[in-house]
Design goal:
Blueprint (H helix, E strand, L loop, with lengths): L2 H23 L27 E4 L2 E4 L7 E3 L26 E3 L6 H9 L5 H7 L13 E3 L2
Parallel strand pairs: 1-3
Antiparallel strand pairs: 1-2, 4-5
Amino acid sequence: MSPRAGLQLVLFLGLVGLGMLVVEKLPAPPMRHGAPAAPAERPPAAPPPAPVAVLDSDVLVLRLGGPAQVVARPAAQPAPAPAAPTKPSGLPAIPDRDTYVVQPGDTLSDIARRELGSAQLADQLARLNKLANPGAIRAGQVLRLR
């Protein structure tokens, strides 16, 4: 017998032995000698999980955590009033006016923060107004915001 065949035989016999050990550990099926076996005791039922999604007319409201389950809200409850639209935090604001008159002590980044919502838009404000030196704005100067 070759060494490879011997190794295969040892592995096969080891797997058979392992299978026999696993089968021995399995519970025996109930004996059926004419009379039905006593029913196995079931563990107590777990409480139903809390819903993570609520269907409210045509709006699906999601909650974080828990198992996935969708529950229809009873029609007797009034639908919640829609929230007032808010400005997304990551987007620049649309200015209320087209121009801004520079005040004493203003910087381009201050103006961009106040009028456009982000000081990071100062470079865009400088390009829009064709400012060669954004730090050289002067009081009374009119800047375009759009």
